[in-house]
Amino acid sequence: GNSVTQMEGPVTLSEEAFLTINCTYTATGYPSLFWYVQYPGEGLQLLLKATKADDKGSNKGFEATYRKETTSFHLEKGSVQVSDSAVYFCALSSNAGKSTFGDGTTLTVKP
Amino acid sequence: ETGVTQTPRHLVMGMTNKKSLKCEQHLGHNAMYWYKQSAKKPLELMFVYNFKEQTENNSVPSRFSPECPNSSHLFLHLHTLQPEDSALYLCASSQGLAGGINYEQYFGPGTRLTVT
């Protein structure tokens, strides 16, 4: 079956530091890949997505590249802000749209 | 605002109570989902509906009973719950479940349920 493995947290960074959250996946077929973000007290929101190999998704300074050869979709941001503190979920969707989520990585950014 | 609303946002209920959670999506989507999010556990998919028909039930106990009267509304009826059912219940919707097309999901803010 499909699976998503993402970097264990929590991750604590200082403001303006570089962020990487690793995500690897196992899937049949041609999945689409997503990063979702969950701010405290809220539901998950789509952060970015990529639908085929070598696509780069980007939004709000975050980006991730769909790497089929390494089955990875690592999330990066060059300079994090306190407001980026949240839980980040890597996910994939395949086989008629059913989604598989990673366990989530908690990011705390300190001023 | 994601276009998916959930009510109530918070609910405290005793083990013998019956209550319902409501979800409504204003996105014109055809698929709707219930998830359970517990502290320190992965997100758990509970039920999936596509065009009002249930397509997935992930071995959820019968004390949770979903209802999908139309593509815009989804309910989760609760009865005789246990304290371990306390969690954040998230509703989501997506454009559909079609072979070869992988849509993202849009989530509501969740209902924080506490069972006493």
Main attributes of the structure:
heterodimer, A: 111 residues, mainly beta, 6-stranded mixed beta sheet, 4-stranded antiparallel beta sheet, B: 116 residues, 7-stranded mixed beta sheet, globular
Explain the layout of strands and helices.
The complex is a heterodimer of chains A (111) and B (116).
Chain A: E1 3-6, E2 11-14, E3 19-21, E4 23-26, E5 32-38, E6 44-50, E7 56-59, E8 62-65, E9 75-77, E10 86-94, E11 98-101, E12 105-110
Parallel strand pairs in A: 2-12
Antiparallel strand pairs in A: 1-4, 3-9, 5-6, 5-10, 7-8, 8-9, 10-11, 10-12
Chain B: E1 4-7, E2 10-13, E3 18-25, E4 31-37, E5 44-50, E6 53-57, E7 64-70, E8 73-79, E9 87-94, E10 106-107, E11 111-115
Parallel strand pairs in B: 2-11
Antiparallel strand pairs in B: 1-3, 3-8, 4-5, 4-9, 5-6, 7-8, 9-10, 9-11
Please outline the major beta sheet of chain A: 6 strands, mixed
Global morphology of chain A:
globular
Reading the helices and strands of chain B in chain order gives EEEEEEEEEEE
Low-confidence stretches of chain B: none
Of all chain pairs, the largest interface belongs to: A-B, 24 and 26 residues
- What structural class do helix, strand and pairing data of chain B support? mainly beta
Tell me roughly what share of residues is in helical segments of chain A.
under 10%
Overall mean confidence score, pLDDT of chain B: 92
Residue share in β-strands of chain A: over 45%
Could you explain the architecture of this structure?
The complex is a heterodimer of chains A (111) and B (116). Chain A contains no helices and 12 strands. With 111 residues, chain A is mostly beta strands. Chain A is globular, with a radius of gyration of 13 Å. In chain A, a hairpin with a 2-residue loop joins β7 (56-59) and β8 (62-65).
